Amino acid sequence: MKRALLSVSDKKGIVDFAKNLSKLGFEIISTGGTFKLLNENGIKVVEIDEVTKFPECFEGRVKTLNPYIHGGILYRRDKKSHIDEAKNLNVKAIDLVCVNLYPFKETIEKTNDFEEIIENIDIGGPTMVRSAAKNFKDVIIVTDTNDYDKIIKAIKDKKDDFDFRKNLMIKAYSKTASYDSMIANYMNERFNNGFGAQQFIVGNKVANTRYGENPHQRGALYEFDNFYSKNFKTLKGEVSFNNLTDMNGAVKIASAFGDENAVCISKHGNPCGFAIKNTLLESYTEALKCDPISAYGGVVAVNGTVDKELATKMNEIFLEVIIAGKITKEAIEVFSNKKRIKLFEYNSDKLLVSHDKYDFKHINGGFVFQDSDKVKDNEVKSAKLVGKKEATKQELKDLEIAYKVASLTKSNCVVYVKNSAMVAVGMGMTSRVDAAQCALKKAIELGLDVSGSVLASEAFFPFRDSIDAAAKAGISAIIEPGGSIRDKEVIEAANEHNISLYFSEIRHFLH
Predict the structure, then answer these.
(1) pTM for the complete prediction?
(2) Who is most buried in 117, 248, 338, 470, counting CB within 10 A?
(3) Residues forming the active site
């Protein structure tokens, strides 16, 4: 008779799984709460003590760490010496191990009690998983409640072959690696301020992308905490690697203004249009004016619902991607004849962001890791007026928009906003003066009037020449972090030109 050891924290589906295993001729061995549940449901089950010949002890800390358990899992069925030794030691084979681990993540989310947290670090579970995974040719290792039906069918159909077991083994080692990484990261967070000797980045695969940035590269989407699985929905088209990275920037900007009707148009990860107006249709229309040429084939992030009217307006040009809180059926129908457009939503009233605590970037030979940057809601409201002239209410609103967009755009960057719409942007330049001049040059080419607009820079202006240039363009207010050794000259220039000047005293580089 084959034997199955079931010891699970998440008991979803375990009763039916045990019943089906019994029908297939397995003797069921179990522990603690799992044993009790199976017994209450009329399943013939052997308690672990009967196998180990040793009681559970130390408040359940030790129950499966026993040679009768691990010997039964680990001995090789294809080696006579192992078979003979198992017989001499009276170690009986365990042919299937079903384990899911103590809920460490749920525990650290609900309590800061270190004693409780320590008790929710699983020891026996990962050990059994690793043992069974090591001997996967002889032992089926089950770590996912969603695999129960698939495993029963494979055993029943005699298709639990090498490849089937191999895939379960890979999943098992991924589970224990992820679990241990989570514990290590938590301990470093608690005792080393989040920056320990090692840093583990673990993501769950959502799907392959057709390729990476270029056709000769492979690519895939991985997620933290099921963010995409739970929220992201494809309505039309197939999301690509580049779509995902481009959308990331547009969504961050459009969602940075709470519930407001924000629309961001992006190209290659950089904003080329942004506006907040009374309706999303007005917002899109104004955002498009900033740079309709770059918007062609771009990404539009809508902080709300795309309805038929907005879709009709969007459909006037070629857009590659639309991402929104929601897109109505009527709006989807508007785009039905556009083969190349891709539509995605979060099935939410507004765009969603995950608010990841940390950020990292690959560099040659490793990665750099940091706290995530975020513009706090009060940064503009709390900015220090360093010039003589106060900004008007509308200028303060425009400064907030310009400042947030600049903070989420590649450095060196300057952003011009007028009446709650971006009218010019210069980004990713080697010189801040070049960024300002390029933005103004493009605005002039497009016939946009920047006079009366406000200007934001994500880092300080090192010289007064940028202020002089802004005055020549008719800029009415400026916000920047400050912190230059020539701040005094910059302030004097703003006063000379009657420009409102604010220092946020916080820099937001994005490299």
Answers:
(1) 0.90
(2) 470
(3) 134, 268
